[in-house]
Amino acid sequence: GAVVSQHPSWVICKSGTSVKIECRSLDFQATTMFWYRQFPKQSLMLMATSNEGSKATYEQGVEKDKFLINHASLTLSTLTVTSAHPEDSSFYICSATWTGYGNTIYFGEGSWLTVV
Amino acid sequence: DAKTTQPTSMDCAEGRAANLPCNHSTISGNEYVYWYRQIHSQGPQYIIHGLKNNETNEMASLIITEDRKSSTLILPHATLRDTAVYYCIAIGSNDYKLSFGAGTTVTVRA
Fold this sequence. Notes:
In chain A, 0% of the residues lie in helices and 53% in strands. Chain A has strands at 4-7, 10-13, 19-25, 32-38, 45-51, 57-58, 67-73, 76-81, 90-98, 104-107, 111-115. By secondary structure, chain B is mostly beta strands. In chain B, the strands form two sheets. Chain B has a five-stranded mixed β-sheet with strand order 1-9-8-3-4, with no helix packed on it. Chain B has a four-stranded antiparallel β-sheet with strand order 2-7-6-5, with no helix packed on it. Chains A and B meet through strand 4, strand 5, strand 9 and strand 10 of A and strand 3 and strand 4 of B.
């Protein structure tokens, strides 16, 4: 079946540095992908919509200059957390929609980011 | 998207069927009902979705009432590995932006 993959699964970075997380649709093309963030014991919160070939659209309260999103191809979206701070430590998850049968939305495995 | 309401938590016995209810009384005609689950420290896993008819796959069955105001996810033979948070989401056919509520924390006990 359709699969969405994220890399890395976990990453530790120093405060002030940038870190990139990749989201790939392995078996299908996705013109739109979504990025979510989840803090411990909380539900997923949508951060932004990644649009292939155009700018991402961000949810209210999400800083677009801090969370850079690039969707350069139909199978890859990247989220770059710039100038990371400890409060950016979270679980980041992407999703993509397979339009083969009934528009099934699949999620990646998630990426744990720890900023020290 | 229509608001969905789920119980906060439920326990079920290993090997028995687990019936997870979801209320979506304001669902509109073009909104599908999706079910996902999230096991600790993993991304959400797609389970099943439907519009009007009942659906079944290798993981679960989805029963949607005739008026579409509620649905039930059935895990036919719950195992310990089914312990997770289960999310019921109503979303339009061309809208892929999912809004997650608190879901139902399901604990399967031996």
